[in-house]
Specification:
Strand order of the largest sheet: 1-10-7-4-2-3
Structural class: alpha/beta
InterPro entries: 4Fe4S_Fe-S-bd (IPR017896), 4Fe4S_Fe_S_CS (IPR017900), FTHF_cligase-like_sf (IPR024185), Helical_ferredxn (IPR009051), LUD_dom (IPR003741), LutB/LldF (IPR004452), NagB/RpiA_transferase-like (IPR037171)
Keywords: 4Fe-4S, Electron transport, Iron, Iron-sulfur, Metal-binding, Repeat, Transport
Shape: elongated
Number of strands: 17
GO molecular function: 4 iron, 4 sulfur cluster binding; oxidoreductase activity
Pfam families: Fer4_8, LUD_dom
Helix content: 40-55%
Protein name: LUD domain-containing protein
Largest sheet: 6 strands, parallel
Length: 735
């Protein structure tokens, strides 16, 4: 990315932070709170997600036969099925069916994907969106910024100004009630005048040809019932085997997207319908149309391929097709919450899953525009109702973007020179992706390396050439690494006298930058009668994976396993200080290592505070740890620590040690490893972090010691707060 490209992206993000950020943040917050409350009522939430995923896995596996079955069913009902190869093919068919007549539409992201409105209008049709948010965007001539709530970026005041300017009503519209009433009346007339109704479909059942539509306004029913021709547009992935399969999705889709136990309207339509058409002059809904059984009503189901069948054959993009378009990934994403889909989105789709959709249906160039906004924090994984590994999809697409469409680059070099091949990994990604090599070099020449890196000349060069923002403080390398310190010091607990024996994994940051937390971890474990070893294990692969350098991450994972395998083979536990590295062991290594190696490491690896909790629960004395003596602390948990459900262990240990703990309700610090260093994202990173600052500067928290478990969290808090934060294991050490 050139300097000019970075500057343009930074300006774009700054503009969205200023103009749309507040509305997006407030609305996603409401959706998230509703989701937490709603899913908490379910006794079988996880089993429902498992069931939903199983149905989607089966449906995508059997998709060709389900499409044949669905076609037979719809045609037996008197309808028509057309499977379109791509957007142009779909628009040609729909335009022929519409034939210039007036069209009313309910919300459909698939119709946005193929841009059917433009195609129909080019052929003489008048097209009206009847979903209130889509109607707002239609008259504003803007693209949706959210899969479920397309106008999430607009405030009520902005919508009122828009309506008053475009429609010039007798009395200015102000309140939500006035705006809604006006839109209902205006669109009601358009519905009565329309001849073709167009809908999408959340699901289509192969056994009965039933369309399941989940809406908040009921406009989909009106679009179908008021017209003689119904055109439903849906991606081929929307097909499920049977009506019975809808049950888990009905339970999950509203809860996951908007936090509703069930959305306002669940419509199950098995067209062509036989209920009478309503319409006429509007004085009587049944006044002058044919009230017969609807024999002349047409139904066309247009199923869109547009790259989906290729995605089905792609081992890494296939999971994208399990998506039920609920938007939970967007709502739970800190970056999306602050800039919305006009930054975190492509030609059609937005949010975490958008990378997979855009790469699959529009191509990698569209995905490349926003893919780096996914930091791989994994918060979306637990929120996805079908358990899609969204961060992995984003990583794989980033890897493919790095490689170029035809490139097959070797990422295993440790040098920091740019790749010569077109589409290769740029210098900045190589720098951040090979942080272990950089840290080793910085440590070898510390403190000189630190002094040079802090000079104005060095910072200016790094900003111009690498896009490392000069406002962000750089890490300071320690001359003696943790591994070197331990080799000199040795273990203080004899193996034969130890309660347990562990290998303490020295992540790159702990090994070369924050060595004191590593030393504290050693001392705390030894105080609890644990024999500790600190093997020279190297970078976990998290750094290159975040840059989309999958081959390098795999090489790192193999080296880490080789270094830790003697301990694992001997039945010893692996203790990890950095939560994102433990997440690598527990999640990403499944894709990077052979199954037996992944399983062995996952089963025997623990986060350090989780491990201390286990020791205390199994008889170790808390008295050997530092006494908190009521010290007031404010604690922020790392994203991946929460994803792995490890936060409770840290809180329990701190409270057992006598600390008075206040926890952060803010879900993300905004730093996300290298993300916060990048010049085009610096202001977004700080904007996300300010919410955490606000929480830690209240009357109750302003005087508390700030504590965080993650490296990124500690770096962000250190930059944004006057108080220097610390890792919880250092509190237990008491030094």
């Amino acid at each position: 990315m050139s300097v000019d490209d970075r500057r343009r992206k930074a300006e774009r993000i700054r503009h969205l932070l200023d103009t749309e950020g507040d509305s997006v943040h407030e609305n996603t917050r409401v959706f998230n709170e509703g989701r937490y409350e709603s899913v908490a009522k379910l006794d079988d939430y996880e089993s429902l997600k498992d069931e939903a995923r199983s149905i989607k896995e089966d449906a995508i596996e059997r998709l060709p036969e389900l499409l044949d079955h669905l076609t037979e069913t719809v045609e037996a009902n008197g309808g028509t099925v057309y499977v379109a190869d791509d957007a142009a093919d779909a628009n040609r068919y729909v335009s022929e069916v519409v034939d210039g007549r007036n069209v009313v539409k309910s919300k459909s992201m698939t119709s946005e994907e193929i841009e059917v409105n433009d195609a129909l209008e080019a052929n003489g049709a008048e097209v009206w969106e009847t979903d209130l948010a889509e109607f707002v965007l239609q008259i504003a001539e803007e693209a949706p910024s959210h899969i479920v709530a397309p106008a999430i970026h607009k405030s009520r005041e902005e919508i009122a100004d828009l309506f008053n300017e475009v429609f010039d009503p007798d009395e200015p519209l102000e309140t939500a009630e006035e705006l809604t009433r006006f839109a209902r009346e205006y669109l009601g007339e358009k519905i009565l005048d329309a001849e073709v109704g167009m809908t999408g479909a959340n699901f289509v059942t192969a056994d009965t040809g039933t369309l399941a539509l989940v809406t908040s306004e009921g406009n989909a029913r009106k679009c179908v019932q008021a017209t003689d021709t119904h055109v439903a547009v849906a991606g081929v992935e929307k097909v499920v085997p049977s009506v019975e399969d809808l049950q888990p999705f009905v339970e999950l889709i509203g809860r996951s997207g908007t936090g509703q136990d069930i959305t306002s309207y669940l419509s199950l339509l098995t067209p062509p319908g036989d209920s009478p058409t309503f319409g006429g002059d509007g004085s009587d809904p049944l006044d002058d149309r044919d009230l017969g059984p609807g024999d002349d009503r047409e139904f066309h189901l247009v199923l869109i391929d547009n790259g989906r069948m290729e995605m089905r054959e792609d081992d890494d993009l296939r999971e994208t097709l399990y998506c039920i378009r609920c938007s939970a990934c967007a709502n739970s994403c800190a970056n999306f919450q602050h800039v919305g889909g006009h930054a975190f989105g492509g030609e059609t789709y937005s949010g975490g899953i958008a990378t997979g959709w855009e790469a699959g249906v529009h191509g990698q160039d569209s995905a490349a525009e926003f893919n780096d906004l996914c930091t791989g924090c994994s918060r979306c994984v637990n929120q996805c109702p079908v358990k899609i590994d969204i961060p992995w999809i984003n990583t794989v697409v980033r890897d493919r973007i790095n490689r170029g469409k035809d490139g097959d680059l070797d990422f295993l070099v440790e040098g920091l020179t740019p790749d010569e091949e077109p589409g290769g990994v740029d210098l900045r990604k190589r720098l951040f992706g090979n942080f272990d090599a950089l840290a080793r070099l910085g440590s070898a020449f510390a403190p000189l390396s630190n002094r040079v890196a802090r000079t104005d000349v060095a910072r200016s060069v790094m900003e111009r050439t690498l896009g490392v923002d000069s406002r962000r403080e750089l890490p300071e390398f320690e001359r003696e690494s943790l591994v070197e310190w331990f080799e000199t010091r040795g273990s203080r607990v004899a193996p034969e006298e130890a309660r347990r024996r562990v290998a303490l994994y020295p992540d790159a940051y702990t090994n070369y930058v924050r060595t004191e937390r590593g030393k504290a971890a050693v001392r705390v474990l030894e105080a609890l009668d644990v024999h500790v070893d600190v093997p020279a294990a190297g970078e976990s692969g998290r750094a290159p994976l975040s840059q989309g350098m999958v081959a390098t991450a795999r090489s790192n994972a193999e080296a880490v396993y080789e270094a830790l395998s003697p301990a694992v083979a001997a039945g010893r536990d692996v203790v990890v200080i950095e939560p994102s590295d433990l997440a690598m062991f527990h999640r990403e290594y499944e894709r990077l290592l052979p199954e037996d190696e992944y399983t062995a490491l996952k089963e025997d690896s623990y986060e350090v505070m989780e491990y201390v909790y286990g020791l205390l629960e199994n008889g170790a004395s808390v008295d050997v740890l530092a006494d908190g003596n009521g010290e007031r602390i404010a604690y922020h948990s790392h994203c991946q620590q929460r994803t792995l459900d490890l936060e409770p262990y840290t809180l329990a240990v701190l409270e057992d040690c006598g600390f008075d703990v206040a926890t952060s309700e803010v879900e993300c610090c905004g730093m996300a490893g290298s993300f916060g260093y990048k010049s085009e994202y610096y202001e977004l990173s700080v904007d996300v972090g300010e919410a955490l600052v606000d929480q830690f500067t209240t009357d109750d928290t302003a005087d508390r010691t700030v504590v965080a478990s993650g490296t990124s969290c500690l770096e962000q808090l250190d930059a944004l707060l006057a108080r220097r934060p610390t890792h919880p294991v250092r509190l237990l050490d008491g030094r």
